[in-house]
Each structure stands twice: as structure tokens, then as C-alpha cells.
Amino acid sequence: MEETISLQELFATLKKRLGLIVLLTVLAVIIAGVISYQFMTPVYETSTQILVNQEQTEGSQFSRQDIQTDLELINTYSVIIKSPAILDRVAEQLDLDMSIEALNQKITVNNAENSQVVNIAVQDPDPAVAVDIANTTATVFESEIQELMNVDNVSILSSAVLKENPSPVAPNPMLNMAIAAVVGLMLGVGIAFLLEYLDTTIKSGEDIEEFLNLPRLGVISPITDKGPSAEFNKASKRERG
């Protein structure tokens, strides 16, 4: 016979184990908060922008073909910016104690669709180092691209600036705690149903009929402190006393 569980039984199980579910949820949030605030290193981000644009000479005008050429070069420039040819010079100028692979992972290059502006974003635990890496990368690229591709169509549009009170972009304690709350809630609900499934003790007449497949012949009513039986018990105690 296939066993089915009604919605009422599901809610009864959740209500029965509500304390456990709440405990696990709160515990998960606390652990996530402690880890986020105490053990995870804050990471700061800064960015600089470069403009890919042909240098206009006196009496000349930009054509649509020139702009399209610049847009097509941007994908190539994005690769070159993160290449060893540029990052080696950046690490050398800043005397960075890290490998080129580690420096590469700190840098993100992107641009908006059909935009001639390339954004160089840098993340680092030290906001000042992030600013130095971003500005130096843009400066080195502007200088080196003239020799690498024999073009002069790159200029720095805006430099990275160190703010007085920079805010870290990671970790995000509130997001981490929200995720932990969901995980803790799911874990609590799962454990609640697991405990209910593993609990094979008989607690009611319905359990006897279900597990033993035997009919109930009678029910013993609970004895309370009120009623004729209670008065009789009290009288017997007085007589014995």
C-alpha cells in the first residue's frame, strides 16, 4: 500500500520541529555574518577609462569608416591590455610582488556595445594599490600600443582616483547572510522531515492501525484531576490518612 502524506501532516511536522528549524536558520546567519565580517578580506575596486579614437589632424574629419575601424580594434585591445607585454611593464614599474597570472586576475577589461570607451577595472585588498595598477596599466598600454600595432588612436579619458573612504565591493555580508538564511531554513526543514521519517514510535491509535494492521478494541480515556474518579481518589486518601 502506497503511503501518502497530507498537507495537514506536513504542516504538523513543521510546527512540531519549528524550534529546530529556527535554530538552524539563526545559526547559519550568525556563522555567515562572523565569517563575512571577521575572516574574509575586503576587496576594493577602482577603474580608469581609455578612449579609442583616431587622432584628428588639421583639416581632416572623422569618417564613419574610421570609427568602425576603432570599434573593431577594441576587442583586440582588450586582449592586449591583459597580455604579458603590458602587465610585465606594469609589474616592473610598480615593483609588484606577484606573478603576471595573479595580476591578470585582478584586472577586468570591458566596454559598452558600440562604444569607443574601454573600461579597465582593478580589484585589490588595498585600494591604493588598485588605483596604481589601473592608472599604470592605462599609461603603459597607451605608450606600448603605438609600437605594438603602429597606431596612435588611444588616449586616457579618465584616471582612477583614491577616495577618502572607499567601500569594498566584496564580501557582501548582507547577501552572504541572506543566502545562509535560505540554506539554514532548507536544512532545518530537511532535518525536520528526516527526524519525523526515522521516528517509528507509536503515539496514537491511528499509528497502531497503520503500522500493526490491527483494529482498535477500545480507548482508555485520560485520568484528570476533575470528575467522580478524582473525588473518589481524594476521599480514599483522606480515609487512609
Automatic annotation (TrEMBL):
Domain Tyrosine-protein kinase G-rich span(s) in chain numbering: 143-194
Residues covered by the Polysaccharide chain length determinant N-terminal domain: 3-94
A Pfam family that the UniProt record links to this protein: Wzz
Subcellular location: Cell membrane
Major subcellular location class: membrane
GO molecular function list: protein tyrosine kinase activity
Entries under InterPro entries matching the protein: Bact_polysacc_biosynth/exp (IPR050445), GNVR (IPR032807), LPS_length_determ_N (IPR003856)
Designated name of the protein: Capsular biosynthesis protein
Organism of this sequence: Planococcus salinus
